[in-house]
């Protein structure tokens, strides 16, 4: 999660979408697998533990489709055509992509409609009930001295009870407080393996123990057993009601939709989104980039045409970047008395800047459109944890508060829909 207890009272970033074609290459910066960048970052980085049918003219294409349509049973096929015709072009193409069917020779919507209807008929696609779990997006404010907002996920540990955990896509593992681990979950003190880590503020030598967590579920949805870290989070200023932090070793067991407008979170079975079991209407596939520990990264431009990798960190209220990136963007730094506290109690001063953020969408593995967020508030400073994962930009909740975001960690895909 993010490391700072700071909130700047400012309106959310304005949005703009543009068609844009550009050439860029993915950046990849992976750490050695034995490195531990541990830590709950109330800014930024979380805990990471050690260890077919076309011809040359449109008229000809139409004739071919009419012949094909007549060969598959006019009644059923026409019903399928009418159903597909109600879909948007983007949704039709996405389903064709999922079916592995090319549509490069389709130049009109009706051609796409016929192609998908035919494929549905051929493959006899049967719509089955979608396996999903939906829960309200609960938010919790931190202490009065640190009035940040966090997303809460209820974790149920069998008969031990249900506890509130903070959601953190910037943490590869799950943390639990010593009190809950020992007094509520029955884990004896001294259990597990002692680990050392690096906090987001450079807190070194953190006292952490790796343990096997009891069987858990989210809103009745069972989770596979995972390892967790016992860590004291009191020094971070988190409310005492917080039992821990749920990281990607739990969240990556699902395709997860975060609808910040309707304020709910939906857990789908793995691969459900790419199989078309979740509505993709309005969603755009983002150009992703690898980050150490399989953290969710996307391609962004913060000015100057310099494409960078940015971490999607929903455990951070605000976004963070380095002084060098802020300088490249041409932003003016505001030297205010802002500071943050790490999990070990270390503090760090930050400047503030407002920077436009451009995300790139992807079609057929090529850059296609762009989504622009105007005047996003950034804390500017050199977080050691950012240096450890070789990522200079963290995108926090303040970027996504008017969006619908879908993370499919098993397939390394990210979808985004923006709302004005």
From TrEMBL:
Cross-referenced Pfam families: Asp_protease_2
Q: Which InterPro entries match?
A: Peptidase_aspartic_dom_sf, SAP_dom_sf
Instruction: List where this protein forms a coiled coil.
Output: none
Q: In terms of domain of life, where is this protein from?
A: Eukaryota
In terms of Gene3D superfamilies, this protein maps to:
Acid Proteases (2.40.70.10)
Q: Transmembrane ranges?
A: none
- Name of the featured protein: Peptidase A2 domain-containing protein
Organism encoding this protein: Ceratodon purpureus
